[in-house]
Design goal:
Blueprint: E1 12-15, E2 18-23, H1 35-48, H2 63-76, E3 80-84, H3 87-97, E4 103-107, H4 131-144, E5 149-155, H5 168-171, E6 179-183, H6 199-203, E7 209-215, E8 225-229, H7 231-238, H8 241-245, H9 251-259, H10 261-282, E9 289-290, E10 296-298, H11 302-310, E11 313-319, E12 327-332, H12 339-354
């Protein structure tokens, strides 16, 4: 069921003049409704304006872009980074850059559409159904075309549980021979040391090359995207016509990210407390799938969505990325949820599953 609302949903959401607890969306840290965070953003809008539409290759350039990219690379643990106006655009830049005769694209199970180059679907390219199937295809390619480098695209947080934190399927691939490109949109700000996402973890697997991209608009609450990698790879991306022609992220967003890290750290601490409380209460409920350290909990029981709605709770439940796909059904915790909220929903969940 679709709901049209006229304000950003925090821990509560109002529908037809009725209030519900909201356990959905991707605002994992709850920054979008945080007063201190918004005040920082407003101050940066006053300094930098609402947007900056010039090319990053313009003869007049704002220093905040280099400052933010240096800061982000240090946080994530990569040699370099670059920013764009959205996470989707970051994925498209990478897919476009590696869409040449020198490379061959392979898509891991449940890979996000942002990582497919334009025309990939028309060319019949889709995600592999399993990692064994992907491994077999990679080995066949390497046997026949050793000079064409395979590029494997994947989502770091696969809500089926196949990737983070173990990356068992990825570890089974011939990593020394392939470039890994991972979308960490659901991980950045939430998982990893200091919320730095999966870059360091994937780097330890020693792939031929590693690039990680992400949206800054989920946990971090800021419109923009980023790419992380070696200085050589990031420099090559910055030289592309794609990067030059794409409008940059608004400078106020990037300035806010740098100045708000203390707020972000505190929000992540609160989120971890909520995850721990929720996980302990539903640990025996096997129908709810959980990913270590993450705040999204998945299920495949459509009646549960209805049951929660009848008890004044709205969750994420819609076909994604298209109507042809299975429902995306998730209970999503946020740093803004209160102790009583967690108690209430876990009480409902235990009653629903244990009384079946």
């Amino acid at each position: 069921m679709e709901y049209i609302i006229n304000s950003f949903p925090g821990r509560e959401i109002e529908i037809d003049q009725k209030r519900y607890l909201y356990f959905g969306g991707t605002s994992y840290l709850g920054l979008q409704t945080d007063t201190e965070f918004k005040d920082l953003f407003i101050a940066n809008v006053k300094k930098y304006g609402t947007n900056y539409g010039a090319s990053r290759k313009s003869n007049v350039r704002l220093s905040i872009y280099d400052e933010a990219e240096h800061y982000l690379a240090g946080w994530i643990g990569s040699e370099a980074s670059l920013t764009l106006s959205s996470g989707y655009l970051a994925g498209q830049l990478l897919s476009d850059h590696f869409n040449t005769d020198k490379y061959n694209a392979f898509y891991a199970p449940n890979c996000h559409s942002a990582l497919f180059y334009s025309g990939a679907y028309r060319a019949g390219l889709t995600s592999y159904a399993s990692y064994p199937a992907l491994r077999m295809a990679l080995q066949q390619h390497l046997d026949v075309n050793p000079d064409i480098i395979p590029v494997v695209f994947l989502d770091s947080i696969d809500f089926s549980g196949a990737n983070y934190p173990i990356f068992e399927g990825l570890r089974s691939l011939p990593l020394n021979d392939i470039i890994i490109i991972a979308d960490d949109s659901h991980g950045i700000g939430v998982v990893g040391n200091g919320g730095a996402g999966v870059y360091a973890l994937l780097k330890e697997l020693n792939p031929k090359e590693l690039l990680v991209c992400c949206s800054l608009g989920k946990a971090l609450g800021l419109q923009g995207g980023a790419i992380f990698g070696t200085k050589k790879l990031v420099a090559a991306l910055k030289m592309t016509d794609f990067f030059a022609g794409a409008g940059p992220a608004a400078p106020a967003y990037l300035a806010t990210l740098i100045s708000a890290m203390d707020i972000i750290d505190e929000k992540r601490r609160l989120l971890k407390e909520n995850i721990c409380l929720f996980t302990n209460a539903i640990n025996e409920l096997r129908a709810i799938r959980k990913i270590a350290d993450h705040s999204a909990f998945c299920y495949s029981d459509g009646q549960l969505t209805t049951y929660l709605q009848e008890n004044a709770i709205i969750v994420t439940d819609f076909p994604y990325p298209s109507t042809a796909e299975n429902l995306t059904s998730r209970i999503v915790l946020s740093a803004v949820h209160e102790f009583r909220d967690i108690q209430f929903i876990t009480h409902l969940l235990r009653g629903y599953f244990l009384n079946k």
